[in-house]
Amino acid sequence: GCAILAELFYYIPVPINSLEGTFWSPQNQHEVLQALGRAMDSHRDDMGVQSNGCLIILNLIGGLSTSGGDRHVINSMIERPLKAILECLQIHGSSSQVQRSGMCALSALIGFVDQNVLRPWIALIVQQLYVTLHYTSDSEIQLLALDVLILLQGLYQGTETIGSSSNVETLLELLGSDTYQVLGRSSAILAYLMENDFMLSSLLMESPNTMQILLSCMSSNQADLQIKVNICSVLDALVNFADADAISQIHQHGGVCTLCTGISLHPASENLAMH
Fold it and tell me: In the predicted model, what is the mean pLDDT of the chain?
């Protein structure tokens, strides 16, 4: 049933005028979300049900988004689809298929509902995203999770939604990735956090490998100009807000040479030179 509903919401066009009396009617949306919640709750171990359930949410919201449909039903029932997505991501952490469907549905849901409706759920969402980032080695899943974090960062300004000791450590681990896109997104999130919460500088310096990871990332062949700017922003925060150990560690790990090389390679970059 879930697979069929996912297909129907994908292929049946949303009416241009009124949704009343059509497949996309508010009543149908309500009934589908009710049935979806029961199905995913009753078959938590079934990866097919969980993946297709997430696709229903994705396709339902996708259709409403493209047509400018009313958000009332989704807003009023936010707990049901959101809880279903978060639980399936938690239970099926080793399934790339479920994680992919769940992350895409989560991203669509966050971008569609009213911010005040979603706000009480942010902490739980962020917690699950970082759990996924910490345990998965699948770069595609990492990218999807990082994209959701960036989406939240843009919608809900403030580090309280994303910053914590364990979260910063997870981002630091991702800077060792050999995937360019993962480096770009994780370094951008880390730079944003460090610029907006100086307390995170001390937390970051508690990790013995922080400076080595940052400088290695900056000198990596994968690092483009923006990644270098992001890393310089993090280093700038460490020097300004962490203890004096940050400066000595930069020198100890050859940071002066790395910084000079970066500036030489991009002489026209005002942001890189500024940091």
Answer: 85
